[in-house]
Amino acid sequence: MTDTADITAKNRAAWDASAPHHGRGAYWEELCTGFTDPAYSRFDATMTQALKDAGIAGAKAVQIGCNNGREVLSACAIGAASCTGIDQSQAFLAQAATLRDISGHRADFIQGDIYALPPDTPRDYDLAFITIGVLNWMPDLPGFFAAVAALLRPGGRLVIYETHPVLEMFDPETDDPMRPAFSYFRADPFTETAAITYDGTRPDDVTESHWFIHTLGSIVQASLDAGLALTRLQEFPHSIREVDYDIYENQDAQVPMSFLLQAVKTP
After folding, report:
1. Do the Cβ atoms of 71 and 99 come closer than 8 Å?
2. Structure pTM?
């Protein structure tokens, strides 16, 4: 049986230990420079349009798993009246506060485990969004979606833009990276000790973390069970994750690499 609290705590420690790799270098400098412009956004065209379609203009929005806050601030840049970011890593939220101060946007950040949020967490958001690299860290998918749904007012909307689970079957570091390496239906998590990075680098080990494959069916079902009515589900052939996975783009036999899910909280 999965111990949600234990796995969540280990993942939090791994993210805190990995944060220094993200708070320096060219990428960090790019963010610091970019957010001096109030219109600066890190969203690609797909996510920008999805948020506009979901009513981001003038909305009270929340991002679950906000990391260093770059997308919270991007939501403000494309029209949110205010945006809150929730993340369990205090180290990354310190970076988020720095970027917020640079941007001048109206944004708040809540440090907390999505499965046990502080009791004073608002529950009346117009729009919630989740982006790359959140769902796979969740040991309890139904519990996660129940917590997300609880953040929304009745009629509030959810937008998810994530890695397609089919892509999790492949390992770009194997000798034959085009051959599936893992079962789509794998239930046991992957256990890692390497620092968590986005740029393909492999820093020294930090602490243990756990990563799950969730099938697209289980993601959709968990959202439905949480009282969210599906309004859109799209699959895409482009990658939104680490640069290592770029090799899977533009293949003759193309696999799905990302997906967009939109839902509304039923009254």
Report:
1. no
2. 0.93
Q: What is the pLDDT of residues 112-160, one digit of tens each?
A: 999 999 999 999 999 999 999 899 999 999 999 999 999 999 999 999 9
Side-by-side strand order, sheet with 228-236:
107-111, 82-87, 60-64, 125-130, 152-163, 258-265, 228-236
SS3 117: coil
* Dihedral of alpha carbons 106, 109, 115, 121, sign: negative
Residue 210 tokens, joined:
């756990």
103: left (phi over 0), alpha (psi -120 to 50) or beta: alpha
Treating both helix axes as pointing N-terminal to C-terminal, what angle do 216-225 and 141-151 enclose, rounded to 10 degrees? 50
Tokens at 181, concatenated = 């390496």
Report how far residue 25's alpha carbon sits from residue 37's, in angstroms, rounded to the nearest whole number: 20
Cα–Cα distances (Å) from 168 to 18, 162, 191, 218, 257, in that order, read 22, 12, 14, 14, 9
Which residues are within 8 A (CB) of 259 and not within 5 positions of it... i.e. 6 or more apart? 160, 161, 162, 163, 164, 216, 233, 234, 235, 236
CB 182 within 8 A of CB 171: yes
